[in-house]
Amino acid sequence: MSGQAIKPEYLTPGTTVGAYQIVEQVASGGFGYVYRVRRDGRIYALKIGRARLSALAPDERASSVERLEREIAALTSLHHRNIVRVHSFERWPDLEGGFPYLVMDFVAGLPLQEWRTGATPALDRIVAVFEKIAGALNHMHELGI
Q: What ranges make up the beta strands (E) of 10-82?
């Protein structure tokens, strides 16, 4: 796959990004696209940016790289049972101007709002979930994040 032809929104199963093999796309958002990927028989989530760093104007690129590095430093400092663990951060297909991506534990399930709307859980279940979220947020605040 040539660097110019890469479209992060259309990575097909079997495509290799770094050491990770695409299984399927599972979500998209403001930053980019999230894929379920496989490496060494384990499943992970790979989040890849929408734009190649080399496609950005120099000032926009510097700002984007600075923001990404700050976010990665924050994410990799988090060690809490209710916060997804980040394993790596890289750029693909080349280090200098490729698409930024990060690899995290894959957590199967619905986004919180979909769960809340579709499952109509009992109040005690909702409270239990929000206690976990509050614990994770507290941990982040203790670290100054």
A: 16-17, 20-28, 32-39, 42-49
